[in-house]
Amino acid sequence: MKAMIKFRFVGTAYNGYQVQPGTIPTVQRALNEATRALFGYDCDVMGCSRTDAGVHARAFCAAVSKKGQRDLPTSIAAANIPRALCNYLPNDIAVTDACFVPDDFHPRYAVAAKEYEYRFYSSPLRDPFEDMRSWHIPCPLLPDAVERMNRAAACFVGTHNFASYMAQGSKITEPTRTVEYATVERQGSILSFRVCADGFLYNMVRIMAGTLYEVAVGRKEPQDIRASIEARDRVAAGLTAPPHGLYLSRVFYRRPDVLPSHWE
Amino acid sequence: MKAMIKFRFVGTAYNGYQVQPGTIPTVQRALNEATRALFGYDCDVMGCSRTDAGVHARAFCAAVSKKGQRDLPTSIAAANIPRALCNYLPNDIAVTDACFVPDDFHPRYAVAAKEYEYRFYSSPLRDPFEDMRSWHIPCPLLPDAVERMNRAAACFVGTHNFASYMAQGSKITEPTRTVEYATVERQGSILSFRVCADGFLYNMVRIMAGTLYEVAVGRKEPQDIRASIEARDRVAAGLTAPPHGLYLSRVFYRRPDVLPSHWE
Hints:
The structure is a homodimer. Chain A is of the alpha+beta class. Chain A is 19% helix and 30% strand.
């Protein structure tokens, strides 16, 4: 058995999830150090996803095993792992759940779908409490911005070739993904775009968010989105929204038999 | 005429509002630099209150005049001051409003009442997104904690000698204050204590919050609070809650004739 952990992090201080050469701070590096301190040996902490620098997570998942092995020899009960790991983690990362799964459970391949949230802060002036936690949009949105964004977002739903919504230079050769839902909700000055898909191309949510921003301010029309997808060309979509508005918010796994029912 | 400004700040990086000797970062120091950059000369930025290190504000007020003078010679319109000052401020401080007031308006003496909010985060595990923005209470609260806290908070309302709710060593000789309201509301894992009074003693809200915490976990009973006030002795009240849960949330002024109607 190895451990699956679920954790949240404020991504501002990190150069993404994945360990990078040298001493660049990443979330995985922090988890490597915490798991070594707790379990007493080096561990592999394999994440469910990669993230860009500055991106946040409310429910990142990772599998923890002894380095170079498929299992995690330990007598620590799963229920005690979150609190114990938190003791070894900086304040901007917290493990919230843990369970044991079979050695062959793969934290990335077993993902059925992921949900991302992109937060826009619409206000003439910036809010210090939203700094680095949403994308500040100082210019006025159209009065029917949320309705327009929802009409645009509805075009993302379904199975499409999303080559237009992939960072230029990305090496992925099969850019077809299935979007389950894509909606925008407003709460006060915060507009929240939620999108769930079986997989995401590099920068896909940030390009979607940047395109929805252009729809919200009137630079693009909701009916342009369908054509932007069909073009299969990055220039047909809108700008790439900055990373600090993006949150990995839910991870859905294919294997309900090996994960506890509350996991999702 | 001089300017009144309203601003918000995340207090984590600051050693309180008031300028201190040397190069210690304070909110007032940041405002001194921003006003000098905008108006082209040194300014006095006189705040409505002092705050401890780490305390936040959603609506701090200050009067801005040319240094050593009672007015602020400028051709900048009040409506343009917030955005202009924001350009010269760090991301954890933002000016949200400005107006011109008579030279004799005093930003502290003209305060009729202030409202503070104290935020508790009740959860076994910490949340990185709440780090330094609320007081994390990992131990379980009693099932009727909010009701108990409200019964306790109700005892604060009215005109009382609050010597028990003042930091030991404070030099204030007249500790009588009038509390207008004091209530606790729950939203998910966040418990929010709001208290409004005509003035606050040093650490008064933090001692109230610490005492309410003791009521919430069962270390004190709601009916103990009245006696704790009557004791006029610091040891009769509870512990001092940490500064990072505290927010100055509203400032009410006596002079509606000189402030715009939306100011509060």
